[in-house]
Each structure stands twice: as structure tokens, then as C-alpha cells.
Amino acid sequence: MKGGKKPRAVMLGVTRSSVLFMDAETKEVFKESPFQQVRRWAAAPTNITFDFGDHEDDYIVLTTNEAEAISALLAGYIDILPKKRNEVGSVKDEDDTQYAQEEPVAPIKAKAMTS
Predict the structure, then answer these.
(1) What is the DSSP letter of 37?
(2) Phi, psi (5° rounding) for residue 42?
């Protein structure tokens, strides 16, 4: 590891607008990044790597068996962003009914390292 940084246990949170990195024990958020700052990410079978471009000096690598699921979840949220931007300013009929589906999501624990 570069700079002798020791991996630590973290939890990853995903909200409508950002990615959260939390201490696994205290649940304290130590990094919150809006989706606009996520330049790219890549999932492998046992890890997921985040690139925050100019907003972070190093990549953040999470070691987890849920990397593919995390990647799919991020892609789903980020795909919604342009659609939401296009809807801003539009007026919908009051009879227009929208439905949402709720899915339980288990917290994902991982070890984080910076490269």
C-alpha cells in the first residue's frame, strides 16, 4: 500500500444525491461526496474502486463481496440524475399518480484503502 495506509472497516451509504463513507463501529460519516464528484468507479469480484477526480488525491478501494451490487446501485441512482434535471420546471397534472417501490437494503461492510 502506498504511504503505509492501513485498511479500516467502513460502511458505504448511498443516498439520492451522494455516496457516504462511515466508520463501521461508530457509524460516523467521515466522507460524503455528491454524485457529481464521482468521476468513475469500477467493480471487480472482491472490490470496488472509486475515483473522485480532483476532489480526492487517491482512489478509494473497498474490499467487499458485494462490489457488483454496489456498482449496479450507483448506476441506477446516477442514471436518474439527468431525468430529474429534465423534469425541473415541468408542471404535471394533479391527477398524475406516481408509484414507488421500496426494497430493503442491507448495510454493506467493507475495508477501505486508498491507492
Answers:
(1) G
(2) -140, 135
5 secondary structure, DSSP code: P
Cα 71–Cα 22–Cα 43 angle in degrees, nearest 5: 20
Per-residue pLDDT tens for 50-105? 999 888 888 999 999 999 999 999 888 877 766 655 555 544 445 444 544 445 55
**CA distance linking residue 75 with residue 73, whole number of Å:** 5
CA nearest neighbour of 113 among 38, 19, 2, 30: 2
- What CA–CA distance (Å, rounded) separates 48 from 30? 18
Give the three cell numbers for residue 74: 450507483
Angle in degrees, CA 5, 8, 11, rounded to 5 = 135
Q: 21: which strand partners?
A: 12, 31
For 24, list phi and psi in degrees, rounded to 5: -65, -30
Characterise 46 by phi-psi region: left (phi > 0), alpha (psi -120 to 50), beta (else). Answer: alpha
pTM here is 0.65
